[in-house]
């Protein structure tokens, strides 16, 4: 039994909340909750008159003016030195670089490198972090291997689902090194690492502590709930914020503080390392849950057909580059649906990243299965803030800024709400689409794949999905290099980094990027037990587990067979 009375800014809750075993196997706790209090949270979206020059929708498949400016400034101010440092690191490994490579690295036409880091829960966030560390010019071990410096030389960084947690936390913490990002700075300040000693939904076996956690999560969305639909996606975003944005430490985990509420994705542009263009341009990927699309569902997926439009959110815009919609809206004003009244504060960073990782719709087979998978938060949100029965509670919901746009081709043009979900639910769990936007002119994509295609390892399915989708949406998206069409074809290509798109025909067509594929594909070559193939549902990791995973990932990304360099592939860095 649960009795909650939602009332603008204050509410009382009394009753029994049963928090059963959720999909991630956390323990059952049945609790008696008798709490009351006023949610005085000052954060949440606000609605004001729009600025004079406000444009709700920008049409087209070209990138936005501020993005172009960002990339231009990064190319001018940051990349020349970054590439110089990177090529010096390469030379220091003693490998002879072919002349044309030297020329490319020293030419004024520096290559445009995008890094895409996949979904797969914390496993993917950790594997992605390990690869970024191996590419980071600030880590002396990475520099020694010759891979360090490529992160600094990349122009774009895309994350999806677990990869979007890595992306968002890295960006918002102002681009610390991976050790600082994952473990905190030890001074228990703003950002205290990923706090993997706590799970995400079920954070305590103590029912009273879990109840306080639940109440705080619900209070934190009170202001938003006054004017906007709320769903499990909002609770999920608040739960994730405790791990991936500033404001939560081991010591204040259960304290009633803001836990990073009010940290907005569009505000990141003001962080020192974004203002100075030192960070690659950050992008997240989402899918839409539509009642109006029927199409081929990629094998192993259970929801979103491959012919659905793909969405992305970057620090400037949310939108879709596919020809069926080709429209974008300002991230800063998400929530807005007309040009007279503008919303700000809707773009909570972890609400957006929580959208990229919202797969609760896949677990909505029955009301009970959904409640179980979300530790009852889907029910709690709806009972605290009663919603229209027509509203989906399993997705992350956005007032539709594209209402009436492309009515003949955009499936959800007529909807008032866009129901959004995990960007990998169509099978493309490695976020390659943003790198295939022709106007981004990406030359090389570094694809980091930590999807679980079986046994916790990646076997190439997400690249196959992207290849299939490119055949459905050829218009306007860059050519994708040929990859095997079956998992069997990928057999040996996931066990070591693999290059796609080096064939003369692909290079001659010159329309698409080359792909450097780094997969979490197999146990270590030196025979030690694999640590990086943990289950997607595992959210609790000890510090030594994390260090072990990062160390094995470092070996994968630097192609040393063990930390001492035995069985090392000496040519990898130069490749
Ligand atoms: C959290 O603090 C606010 C005041 O800042 C208060 O209204 C609310 O009841 C508190 N919530 C809990 C769970 O203690
Ligand atoms: C988060 O904290 C770090 C310091 O740990 C700081 O540099 C950064 O600006 C903060 N980010 C935000 C969005 O407040
Ligand atoms: C999709 O398929 C279902 C069942 O076959 C059908 O009822 C529905 O009308 C179709 N929708 C569209 C948009 O084609
Ligand atoms: C514009 O949007 C605001 C906020 O969502 C809404 O209250 C208002 O009715 C809308 N105005 C028009 C003319 O549609
Ligand atoms: C959800 O909570 C209710 C109590 O409000 C409890 O009876 C029910 O078992 C819970 N359901 C699940 C699936 O956890
Ligand atoms: C959500 O709340 C509304 C209003 O109380 C109710 O009509 C609806 O059935 C609820 N949805 C679910 C799935 O419980
Ligand atoms: C579960 O999915 C169905 C569509 O299959 C949807 O109509 C319903 O709203 C979803 N339930 C919740 C609670 O979101
Ligand atoms: C990880 O791989 C090992 C060896 O291949 C296997 O025994 C283990 O079950 C895998 N772990 C998971 C969680 O799949
Ligand atoms: C994979 O590698 C093994 C051992 O090197 C080899 O026997 C096998 O033929 C390879 N498979 C494919 C599909 O290339
Ligand atoms: C550099 O990377 C290695 C391998 O993951 C790690 O052990 C080390 O702590 C890192 N060093 C710094 C300074 O971050």
UniProtKB/TrEMBL annotation:
<dbReference type="InterPro" id="IPR016035">
    <property type="entry name" value="Acyl_Trfase/lysoPLipase"/>
</dbReference>
<dbReference type="GO" id="GO:0005829">
    <property type="term" value="C:cytosol"/>
</dbReference>
<dbReference type="InterPro" id="IPR002642">
    <property type="entry name" value="LysoPLipase_cat_dom"/>
</dbReference>
<comment type="similarity">
    <text>Belongs to the lysophospholipase family.</text>
</comment>
<keyword id="KW-0378">Hydrolase</keyword>
<keyword id="KW-0442">Lipid degradation</keyword>
<keyword id="KW-0443">Lipid metabolism</keyword>
<feature type="domain" description="PLA2c">
    <location>
        <begin position="49"/>
        <end position="575"/>
    </location>
</feature>
<keyword id="KW-0325">Glycoprotein</keyword>
<dbReference type="GO" id="GO:0004622">
    <property type="term" value="F:phosphatidylcholine lysophospholipase activity"/>
</dbReference>
<keyword id="KW-0732">Signal</keyword>
<dbReference type="Pfam" id="PF01735">
    <property type="entry name" value="PLA2_B"/>
</dbReference>
<dbReference type="GO" id="GO:0004623">
    <property type="term" value="F:phospholipase A2 activity"/>
</dbReference>
<dbReference type="GO" id="GO:0046475">
    <property type="term" value="P:glycerophospholipid catabolic process"/>
</dbReference>
<protein>
    <recommendedName>
        <fullName>Lysophospholipase</fullName>
        <ecNumber>3.1.1.5</ecNumber>
    </recommendedName>
</protein>
